[in-house]
Design a protein that fits this description.
The chain contains eight helices and two strands. It is an all-alpha fold. The chain folds into two domains: 69 residues, Glutaredoxin; 113 residues, Up-down Bundle (Glutathione S-transferase Yfyf (Class Pi), Chain A, domain 2), CATH 1.20.1050. The mean pLDDT is 93.
Length: 206
Amino acid sequence: MLDSPYVRRVAISLQLLGLRFEHQSLSVFRTFTQFQQINPVVKAPTFVCDDGEVLMDSTLILEYAEAVASPRSLLPSNLHELQHALRLVGLALAGCEKSVQIVYERALRPPEKLHEPCVTLVTGQLLAAEGALEEGIASRPPAVTSSAITQAGVSAAVAWHFTQEMLPEVVPAANYPSLVAFSARAETLPEFMAAPHGDSTYRHDG
């Protein structure tokens, strides 16, 4: 489902790479059995290739997509620029991972079983990732157009939007002005608007 930042970064990236795809919105909770029939691991996103082989993990799916779309790419070819882009992607994914951990801890664990030291640790990791991402976006603002945005920009924007949808009280927007401005601009791109955060299903026009 597009309420997962990992699913959403794949859906947006596939569009930017010019690859057509069909999106089926399934929940790892509400439609577990149906999802299990496609991928026994029930991991989102799950990507079914044209020959039926199943891939999972957003980064690995996008590595495959990059190979299919070549020479089109969302990663810089210059080594120094690639290094910087991969750092931002790593920070964005760390933010996603820690946000999801907090959401799951709150939503799935009974209040009396909530382990506050763990939540505190993960929250610290989340804030560290967001702080470094804010610094990276502020010092070298990524391009925000459909033709120029990189995977670093996609991942940063998606990660920030997810965190603000799910944990705004944990990561106050006022502390991250560069991320706020960058994400707001990215969300106006047609590829982002076609795959909005939530339980809707992405569909191609035409």
